[in-house]
User: What shape does this take?
Amino acid sequence: MEQRVSLKRTSLYVSGSSPANIIEAVFYNQDCIVYDLEDSVPTSEKDAARLIVYNALRHQRPAEKYVIIRVNGIYSEFIDEDLEAAVRARPDALRIPKVESAKEVQSISAKMAAIERQAGIEVGSIELWCNIESYLGILNALEIATADSRVVALALGAEDYTASMKAQRTKKGLEMFYARNALLMACRAAGVDAIDMVFSDINDLEGLREDVALARNLGFDGKTAIHPRQIDIINSYFTPSKKEIDYALRVLAAVEEGKRLNKGAVALDGSMIDKPVELRALTTIAQARAAGIKIGGENHAG
Amino acid sequence: MQLKHPAVAGTLESSDVQVTIHPNNGMGLDIRIESIVKAQFGDAILETVREVLAAFGVTDASVQINDKGALDWVIRARMQAAICRGVERSFDWEGEGV
Amino acid sequence: MPVNAVGRELPERIGNYIVKPYQGINAPEPTSKKVVSNRVLTLRPAGGSKVIGTLEEAIEASGLQDGMTISFHHSFREGDLIVGQVLTAIRNLGIKDLRFAPSAVVNIKNPSIVDFVRDGTITRIEASGIRGELGDAVINGLMDEPVILRTHGARPRAIEAGELEIDVAFIGASAADEYGNATGQIGPNACGALGYSFIDATSAGKVVVITDYLVNYPCVPASISQQYVDYVVVVEQIGIPEKIGAGATRMTRNPRDLMIAKRIADVIAASRLFENDFSFQTGAGSISIACTNYLAERMEERGIKARFALGGITANIVEIFNKGLVKVLEGSQSFDAVAARAIVEHPNIVEIDNAVYSNIYGKGCMLDKLNFGVLTALEVDVDFNLNILTGSSGEMMGGLGGGPDVAAGSDISIAALPIVRGRTPSVVNKVFTICTPGETVAMVVTEAGIALNPRHKHYEMLRDDMGKTDLKIVSIESLRQLAESFTGKPKQIECTDKVVCIVEYRDGTVIDVIRQIKR
Assistant: This one.
C-alpha cells in the first residue's frame, strides 16, 4: 500500500486552563499542538477550558500547526459536551484517551459525524488519534487502528499502561519495550502513524535524548512532549541527518536512472534497491523538507 | 437571559482575565473594567463584554473585569463561562454561542 | 516644528534647552573644542587625612549651594544606600534646587527620589534612565524642567562638552584609604567595577568618596586615584551587594525567552564574523544570559574563541572566561559578587572607564570594536527604531543604558524581543519613544522569526549568511501584522504638549522627546 508521509515528530500538550501557555505554544517548533481538556484541567474548570479551547481555535487558530484536542475519557461525564466543543472548534484531530476496542472508536466517530453534520463540517474530516494506555489497548491495537477511517495515529501512554500491567515505571523503560513494539507493528500493519510515549522528567534532557533515540530506532514517527524545552531535542532525532538525506537522494537518483533505462532491478553501492528502501528514502526527503531543510542538488547523481 | 446568582470565571494570571458577574435585576448593565492595558484596549474590552452579554440576551448584570492583558478571545471565553455559570446552563453549542 | 532624521517633530527650545535635532548616524562633525572640567588645582600640605566626620560636614566643606549639580554612580543599582543618605544630609542642610545627575537613577525606596523632588531639594534630573516611582511621577508631570536622558556614551560627552558640569561628585566605594584612593573591588560590600565614576572624578569641582571600609594607606587596588578626591566620609553601610543583580542576572526559564536566546546564538554562529578572535557583548538581561550560554556551546562545538567580551560583567560570563572561551573581559560594571571579585583575581578581566567603553568623542570607544552586540528592547517599529524607555501605556520602564551605543558600534547589532507581551504588541508602526535609530539595528530576533534590516550597513552580508541556514527570515512588517492579529489595534496614547523627558543620542542631538501623558 502507499505509505503516507506526514510530519508528526512532536506533539506538545497545552492545558486548556492556561491562556498564557496556549498563546505561547503557537511559536514553538512542535509539529502538533494538543489542547488538553483532560488531565491538566481540574473537574471544576472543564466548562471554562472547553470555552477557552473553542474560542482559541475559532479566533486564533495556529496557521502552521497540526491542531489536536484531547477530550476527556470515553466513559466520563464530560465526553459528550467535550465532543460538541471540540468538533465545532474544527481541529485537525481529536485525541481520545485510553482506547481499548474498535467499538469505542466507532461510537466516538459516529457522535463526531452527527456534530459535523449539524455544524456544516465535512463529515469524517476531523481525524482521530487513539491513546493506547492499557494492556487491553495494546492487545487490540490493530483492530483500533483499523476501526475507522478517521484513525491516523496511535499514541502510547506509559503511566496507565504500566499500572495496568502491575509493572514498575523506570527511566530506561524496559517495561515498555514490548508495548512499544506491539503498538508499532499494529500501526505499520494499519498504515497509521506511531507516536511514542511522554518522557516525564522535564529536567533530564540527557535521559530524553536516550529515550527518543531508542524510539526513533524502533521506528516511531514522533513523540509526545509535555514541556517546550523537550521539543527541539525530539525534533532533532526525527529530522534526518545530512548523511541520511544524501543517501536517500542517491537512492532516488538510482531509481530514476533505472526507470529511464527500463531496468527492472537497480543497485546502489553493490546492494539492490527494493521497494521498502525506496519508500524509506522518500520519507526521509519529505521529513527533511517539512523540517525546513533546504535540499540542494537533487539531480546531482542523475 | 436572567442571571440566577453571582459567578466567576478566569484567573488573575498573566494573559488571563477574571470576570465576576452579579445579577442586577431591572437595573441594566453596570460594567467596570480594570486592565493593565486599559489605555490602549479599554474600549475594545468594553465592546467585547457588551457583545457577549448581548449574544446571551443578558440585559441586567453588574460585571467586574479584572484584566491581566488577556487577548480578545480569552475575554470572550471567560465572559461566556461566567454567564453560563451564572445562568446555570451549558453553552449553546448548537447555536455556537449565538 | 523641526523634524529630526528619524521623523520626530521636536520643539526648537524646551525651556532653556536648545534642541539640536538628530541628523543621522553619520552626521556628527569633528570638533576641536577643549575638554571642559571643573577640577581645580588644590594645594594639600603634607600630613593629615581627607577623612571628614559626617556627610553633612563633607557637603558643607564641598561648598555645595542652591542650584548646583551633584552626581553619583549606579554601581549598587537596587542595593544603593548612598544616594538616600547624601540627599537626606543635603536636605538637612537646607540646600535646594539641585541638578541631580547620576549615571543612572537607581530605584531607591525610603526615602525615594520623588520625596526630594517634591520638597524642592532636586529640581532638575539628568541620567540614563528613571524608572519606578520616579519615572511614573515624571511622566505624569512631576517636574517643571524636563529630565534629560543620555546613553552611557552620551553622558561623558556631555560632561566634557560642558553641557553637564558637575559641582560635587559623591562616589561610593567599598574600600578607600584616608587620602581617597578608592575601589569597588574589595571590602565587605564590594560592587566591582566603578567604571561610571571615572569621568565624575576627573571632571567634578569637588569629589567626596564615601565608604564603609577604610583601609590602611594605600588602598590597593585603586580605581579612583587620590589626586581627584577632596574628602573621604566613612558611613555605616554603602550598599547591599546581594541586590546589585536583582533580576538582572538570573537566567530565564521562560521557554519563549529561551527560544529567542537560542535563535540569537544561531544567528551569530551563522555569521561569517563568527570566527576566532571575534568579539561580542550579550548584556545582562535574563534573555542575554541564556544567549551567552547558548553562544558558548556554539563556540565549543566549532572550536572558536572570542578575543574579548564587553559590557557589564556577570558570573555567567566569568564562567565562560574560565573555560578559556574568551581571552579578555572588559567591563565598566559588575552585576554580582563573582563578577566583582573576578577583576581582582584575573589580570584579563579588566575594569574600564565607561567613557572608554562608550564615548565616541573620547577618540573612539571600545564598543566600536564589537562584532556582535545583543540589545533588548520594549518595542521595535517597522523602521527598526527601538524603544527601551517607555511601555506602550506611556509608563517609564527602563533606562537607555548603553544600548544605543552598542547598536551603533557593533558590526551586527541584534535586537531581541517577543512580538507580544500579554496583550501588548511590541512590533509596531511607530514606537512610543525612539531611543536607538533603526539604521543602527541589523536585525530583530523574535519568537516568530528573524527580520533583517535592509537599511543596515551589513544587510547584504547578513542576508547571504542567513540564507544558507534554515533560520526563519521574515519581514518586519509581517511581524507587526502577526503581533496585531493577536492583540488587535492598540489605541494611540494621548499626550499633552509638555515635554517631560528629552532623549539625547550619543552625539548630544535629540532623537526624541517624551511628552506628558494625558490622563
